[in-house]
Amino acid sequence: MDFKALKTFHTIVELDGFQKAADVLQYAQSTVTVQIQNLESDLGVKLFDRHGKRVKLTEEGRLLSLKTGSLLNAIEDIKRLLTSAGSGYAGRVRIAANEPSASLRLPMILADFCRERPQVQLSLDVGGTEFITETIAEGRADFGLCSPPVTQTNLFYEPLFDEQFVLLVSTQNPLANRPDLTMDDLSTERILMKERTCQYRAMIERSLMEQVSYPGSGVEVGSFEALKGMVQANLGVSFVPEISAAQLPPGTVARTLVDTTVHLPIGLLYRTDLTMSKAAQSLLEIFRGQLRQAGRESRPLSGEAPALS
User: Fold this and answer.
1) Tens digits of per-residue pLDDT, 168-180?
2) Does domain 164-263 have CATH number 2.120.10.30?
3) Fold topology of 91-160+264-291
4) Could you say which of 159, 204, 234, 286 would form a disulfide bridge with 267 (CB–CB 3.0 to 4.6 Å)?
């Protein structure tokens, strides 16, 4: 059944005439007549009785009008939805991000995006780099925000900024007031760490082993918020993202080391072999614009940066 002919049929019914339908649809009347003749031929029934310029539905025409009105509206809705999706204002966007970006950097960006594009369905998964890499590789998210992944197949990593870390110390600890704190000052401290699969931990341990005798963490904690609580109780000291230390727990201070800068690159991760929706491309561009530090360039894991299609 031809969609254009069906639309012409319903326009004739609505306006009660071939010529009126032709005027509204901007067709020649002969075109309207041919469309209806072809529709009648396809269905094997007569749809109209013609009386001069006036037309009347046959019983078969009445049934066709009754049963296809909602179908025609549904098709029009689908066309409008696809047009919106093609312009980036409808569809689905799935992203994955690590902490603290998911909690502290993305909420305002995502809120603005959803207000501007209320028809877009958005989902955010939160986890570590290993989880995000797996999620992107398996096609369960359009792109991610994380530290550099180990896996390289079909993935492109684009650095945006460096996550800076500070040392969180209890005010009961002598390090809280020691001037010019260095990495050597940590050699006798209990350093609280996240789980072993955490990229933050791997980066911090590399920095420690390069400069001090580091036997390894005796305490592992699964979240930065829990780490803060442990430091507050003076169980030990911990490196935490500087952005998450903006509101410190009572009885703690954030210190920087004069001889070491502890940081980890954070960037976008996505597949090079999948077509990203217009909505996802739009959000990815917003991430670039608001999160990338001036002067940083894209860096592919293999080859040059692909063009998003």
Assistant:
1) 999 999 999 998 8
2) no
3) D-Maltodextrin-Binding Protein; domain 2 (3.40.190)
4) 159
